[in-house]
Write a structure and sequence with these properties.
The protein is an alpha/beta fold. It has 15 helices and 22 strands. A 6-stranded antiparallel sheet has the order 3-2-5-10-7-8. Helix 1 runs antiparallel to helix 2 (170-187), helix 1 (3-19) packs across helix 3 and helix 5 (261-281) packs across helix 6 (292-301).
Length: 649
Amino acid sequence: MNKQALYERIRTMLLHIESKIVVNGSVVTDLLYQKTEYKVGNQCPRLDESNSDVFRENDVWGGALDQHAWFYKHITLPKKSNPDNRLELTVQTNRSGWDASNPQFIVYFNGVPQQGMDLNHTSVVLPDVPELDVHIYAYTGTVDGTDALGLHPKAEKPVEFHVQCVEIDEWAERLYYDLIVPADVLRFSDSDTHTYSAILEHLNNALNLLQWHSEEGLRQSMRAACAYMQDEFYSKFCRQGDVQVSAIGHTHIDIGWLWTVRQTREKAQRSFFTVLKLMEQYPEYKFMSSQVPLYKAIKEECPEKYEEIKKRIAEGRWEVEGAMYVEADCNLTSGESLVRQVLYGKKFFKEEFGVDSKVLWLPDVFGYSAALPQILRKSGVDKFVTSKISWNDTNMMPHDTFNWKGIDGTEIFTHFMTSQEIREDGTVANFTTYLPQANASYVMGSWKRYLDKDIAKDALLTFGYGDGGGGPTARDLQMLRRMSCGIPNCPTTKIETATEFLNRMQDQTEGKRSKWVGELYFEYHRGTYTSQAKTKKNNRKAEFALQNCEAVSVMAEKLLGIQYPAKELAQMWELVLTNQFHDILPGSSIQQVYDDANRDYEYVLQQCEKLLRDRLGAIAAATGGENGIFVMNNTPFATGGVVKLDGGS
């Protein structure tokens, strides 16, 4: 049999093995169903026939956009056909397409939140108990008039809801991953090499051990095939290569974009709950996430999960990084606000988790001011990571690892993410993604796309679905386990933190890095200075108002002993910083986001006006007397002008 025919045989056999992973399934019917608004906290409601409808197998729900509901069922778990197998609860709908706009869920067992579910995470492992209360908090997804982007299903589409208990054959699952990972490596390898033939031979030898004449014979032979792959392939044939791709779990969540900031609070819960659940099953799994509002959402909505996150951070398995309060726009945001982004971000991470953030993490931002290196260095941040500038439509950046020199001469270590799928002809596209999957195509493509191989031998893979797609999957982690053994023709993978990778890259490239001077201009997303002009104007007015409030409040405290309104000013700054997120301030979000943002600005401006009026009035009364005139210059430089009083001057 020639190589191509043998390869096709292997791919066909893999489909048969995959079909054996799910052994049995039983449909969960007649759930209790109750429409609801956004939940507050994580208390499951008490559902019974007096306050709920019965949702049967062919029923649908939703229909309108941005709808929520609770589903409930007390289930008796089916008996497993084999004690080595496990049971899972699956949830599926009739939706497909982009995961971030589709239905998403939080699953609770006996009132305790377990994990989020979505198009990429359709199952949750069931505990080994005879019966269970299952609550599912459901969200339809959003389609807010943005079908022109090609990202959404049609609006007003009712949602199906299918729940099952399924039995998973763990030996079939293990063998599938043992074989699919090296088989995927073959897709992008030169078939005219000894290594290709050797991998092919190992896969064929494992498959030849399978006995298909009976279910029990197949099951026992799968164990033998797994043992062969472990002993002969992964232990003896595989080897650690010189090139390493560092993998860190990640989920990029836009604070506001095609959904509101309020919905982002739920996206954070679903994604972070899923991360915690997978960490229980995969002890090697490490994850990182930036952005203070995501953590605040967990702290306020589910304190017990927040404590779990703290434990994982203390263990070194959950990396808190990013430096800024949100992944902020860096074009229109003022210098003072950029300082506050870092100040408030670092302060939260330090106080809550004991972490001194050292990395500015902005994979999706639309360009970067040349003032940033100075601001970062003076704030104790010495590394900068981004990705999206690789989407430039005319001028491609010449390096991925370099020193970025700002307008004052300050330099900062900079690294661009390089994740991209490799094509079967061995080429890669120029643009990169911060949402790759952890498969052989992305691992090989991340290294292939890296531009500075002459000074470094590592690449970074931030794997996981974003924006409500739930982050990394069990499939990602299963594949990384195999690739960590060092499959020939593929970089060796290692799960580690982004900081560990960046520190090593700094050491590898010390004295060798090129230099980029000035602004990092992003060509692809234009209009960031003009779109949503009202929001941009309100942002600038709020920045000025807050700075004036702070200056006058300090004067009032020093001169008159009036207490400085630290808490009130901090709350207002946090509103402004949140709305400087890179899809809000530039103007790329939906209308509801701007309605909410402008209400926030109105509140900030009103509160600032009141604080200014009260404190300026007190200062004027104390310094000018009843008949005096009080004039204040609130700019940082000397100025002049005419003061008009009662129509005169």
